[in-house]
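In the design runs reported in the main text, the only information available to the sequence generator was the tokenized backbone. The following block is the verbatim input for one such run; it is reproduced so that readers can re-run the procedure and compare outputs position by position.
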């Protein structure tokens, strides 16, 4: 049984460069580890692409939230 080990993912806002760390332990269907949209929003970030994030403040400024 291959159990996923937790790891720390760093999310950086694409606009203001604010950094947030989150712990990820789940795997996607293809075996890749990704930060879920729920993890991102719980950390105050908005995902708008593959490994692309805005913080809540910048997301409101550009219209993503």
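Verbatim output:
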């Amino acid at each position: 049984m291959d159990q996923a080990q937790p790891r720390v993912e760093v999310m950086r806002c694409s606009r203001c460069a604010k950094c947030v760390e989150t712990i990820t332990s789940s795997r996607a269907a293809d075996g890749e580890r990704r930060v879920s949209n729920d993890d991102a929003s719980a950390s105050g970030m908005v995902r708008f692409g593959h490994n692309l994030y805005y913080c809540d403040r910048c997301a409101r400024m550009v219209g993503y939230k």
